[in-house]
Amino acid sequence: MKRIPIAAAALILVALGLGLLDLGLLDLGTPDRERFRGMVSPRLQSDKSSDTAPTIQAAGPTYVGRQTCLECHRENHRLHSHHGHATTFRSTKDPEVARRFAGKSYDAGEPFGTYTYHVDDQGLFVRIPDKFGDRPFRLEYALGHRSMTLISLLPDLQSDQDTPRSDRDTVALEHRVSWMASEGQLGKTPGQHDGPPQTAAELFGHRHEGRIMHRCVYCHVTTGEIVGQQIVGLTPNVNCEKCHGSASEHVRQARTMKTPPPFSVGRVDWDAESELQLCGDCHRMPRDITRKQLREYPDLLARFQPVGLLRSECFVQSGGSLKCTTCHNPHQSIDETTETEHEQNCIACHDETTPSTETSRKHTVCPVSPTTGCIACHMPALKLDGLGDGFHDHWIRVRDDK
After folding, report:
1. Region of 373 on the Ramachandran plot (φ > 0 left; ψ -120 to 50 alpha; else beta)
2. Distance between CA 34 and CA 138 in Å, rounded?
3. What are the Cα distances from residue 297, in Å, to 235, 293, 389?
4. Could you count the other beta carbons within 10 Å of the beta carbon of residue 123?
5. Peptide bond into 111 cis (omega under 30)
6. Please, what are the averages of pLDDT over each run of 10 residues along the chain (402 residues)?
7. Chain centroid to CA 252: how far?
8. Residue 365 CB-density burial (10 A; 0-12 exposed, 13-18 middle, 19+ buried)
9. Fewest CB atoms less than 10 Å from the CB: which of 5, 155, 241, 384?
10. How far apart are CA 316 and CA 299, in angstroms?
11. Residue 299 in contact with residue 393, Cβ under 8 Å?
12. What is the rounded distance in angstroms from the CA atom of residue 143 to the CA atom of residue 94?
């Protein structure tokens, strides 16, 4: 029998495969079909269409937006619509932002003066009449769900003469005044310095630059990067793909397969530590605070929930089973979860009716109130300066003041 050269045999097999594909007799999924076609050399491909040069498809999934997720995940989409994550980043053109500020004034005292707020078709701006007359200062973005803090992106300035150092140098100006939901009025933005401003722009607020500036935007959007004084590729708010990742490949599979593979955060070995790293990327980990703060644990750290949870015996002794999602549905607003529902999560471990086992012996049943009052006693809401009393301390413990 006459042998066919290896190269010729390969070409015959490829041609046969392509023919079967075109006839529909070789049943490959869409991605496998495209990969099979991609095995053909550019020369062979050009034989079929000599006018078209071969192209290389870009690899990797892309972002599709939360409206695409609505096709299958209607309930999670509905829950997320009422979640604080859904309104973490807005243009000041948003009517809700304008409603909080426009027509109001705030006396910040000397050397800052009195701010007056106005709105036009470009959004919100503020004036300090006794210092700059009618000269406006633009406020571009509002960060926050109920309470709102305003920021503007500006060229970095060398001096009060407003001379740009470079078009590439940018600072974020965090406005000195915020809308405080807990007070229902304007108030001083937490963390503002009271020292004399170094530039005229700093009369309007505290400047941030570098990593802190970029993190301000990163943690309030799904996608977006500061380039110059613009935010490029902006997808505002913390939407599905902020946590789940870019979903184009998942969507493609879901639309073409009867049983598409699951798509969520993490891997099969996802554990409490992995989840804390994900949530703590924005809600803060110990690496994001000073050692002094971690040691002394001021009330302000109630804002940084993973820091508190990591100190809790409930977490330490759980063997990795206590996670953020043990108590929180990440799609659902905290306002839609009752205190009783939260307490049931506590009682699930600290239950006096559960027969003693090797696991349950490690848990302590509360001697004071074994079935109610867990949250108010062991992780109360703390009143923080300028932030109200909406932050629960996640260092779960028997408190010294009880």
Report:
1. left
2. 51
3. 35, 5, 17
4. 17
5. yes
6. 44 39 35 32 32 52 95 96 95 95 95 96 96 95 93 77 58 96 90 87 93 95 95 97 94 92 80 91 93 90 93 89 92 90 90 59 79 91 74 90 59
7. 24
8. middle
9. 5
10. 21
11. yes
12. 12
What angle separates helix 6-23 from helix 30-38, to the nearest 10 degrees? Answer: 150
- How many CB atoms are located within 10 Å of the residue 352 CB? 11
Quick check: 293 and 382 in contact, CB under 8 A? Answer: no
How far is Cα 343 from Cα 350, in angstroms, rounded to an integer? 10
Got the DSSP string for 357-383?
-TTGGGSPPPSS-SSS-HHHHHS-EEE
CA separation for the pair 364, 261 (Å, rounded): 40
Of 152, 148, 160, 96, the residue nearest 126 (C-alpha): 152
Q: What is the structure's pLDDT at 82?
A: 93
Domain ranges of the chain: 6-48, 89-236, 267-392
| pTM (predicted TM-score) | 0.78
For residue 282 the two structure tokens come to: 């924005």
- CA 167-144-187 angle, to 5 degrees, is 95
Neighbours of 252 (CB within 10 A): 15
Go through the chain and tell me how many residues it has. 402
Residue 39 dihedral angles phi and psi, to the nearest 5°: -75, -20
DSSP type of residue 49: -
Which tokens sit at 35? 């990969």
β-strand pairing of 148-155 with 388-392 = unpaired
Q: Which amino acid belongs to residue 168? A: R
| Residue with token string 């079967």 | 20
User: Which of the 8 DSSP states describes residue 168?
Assistant: T
Give Cα separations from 322 to 6, 78, 244, 310 (angstroms): 59, 26, 20, 10
Cα–Cα distance, 363 to 366 (Å, whole number) = 10
184 Cα distance to chain centroid = 25
| Preceding peptide of 262 cis, ω within 30° | no
State whether residue 261 is helix, strand or coil.
coil
In angstroms, the CA 105 to CA 128 distance is 10
CA distance 89 to 215: 13
